[in-house]
Amino acid sequence: MDSDLERVGFVGLGAMGAPMAWNVEAADYDLGVYNRTDSRMEPFADAGVATYDTPAALAAESDAVVTMVTGPEALREVTLGEGGVVEGLDGGVLVDASTVSEDATEAVEGAVRTAGGRFVDAPVLGTVGPAEEGELLVLAGADHDVLTEVRPLVEVFGDVRRVGGVGDGTNMKLTTNLMIGVLMEGFSEALAFAETQDLPLDEVLEVIREGVVGAPLYDYKAPVVRERNFDPQFPVDHLFKDLDLILDAAGERAVPLPATAATREAANATRALGHGDEDMAALLRYFEDVTGRTVGE
User: pTM higher than 0.85 for the full model?
Assistant: First the structure.
């Protein structure tokens, strides 16, 4: 640890938040945690990490607080609601690593500033594996001085890239998730089409990998498809939430996103089939259901 921010609070101990919080603890910060579902705090309590009843109580005992929650509503609740982070923040720093809307980011930043604190808009790129290894990409939107202050802390999560001011981190994350969603939907469509043409799955995946459309995303997801292991790295539910945020923001600025809209509907159909808590590669299941053909069989 190389920072004046010695006491760190972490709010949100889900699939991404828990490993990120453990990495903070491993970096020798004085860690405290809060989660809306108490059971998620139990492993931390068992390891001697302080747990708190409210985000405000946690913030009051922290130099910096990191939030990693599911979306705008959850962020507003844990920061601006009764007993929220802002209520207990006393000149500290709030680092939001969640994927939310620009409106939510700006609302929280304004409240933090009014309370005398500093704010870093810091959503992360990566899934559970990189979170566990501390190999995420942090898309930081913040003033230079504030980011310099918190950089040793956020580098615990991985590489840090300043992409602009507050709000720019959020919008950069939504931009990348737009691409991820559309690429995943196209990948699923292509595999479903290839299956109906009786092409061998391994051959299809190899041609995709070696051709002009090859991409790291497809390298990551090829084993998922081969093994049909849809354990969530980035769940369909989260993809749907992010695409909703993207389309809302685009609608406000009259930006047409037809491929994104189609991807959201494919994600919603996958959710309707009961696969919302599975990895986004489960978009393939929707096309399998429609065609009556299982890819690779």
Answer: yes
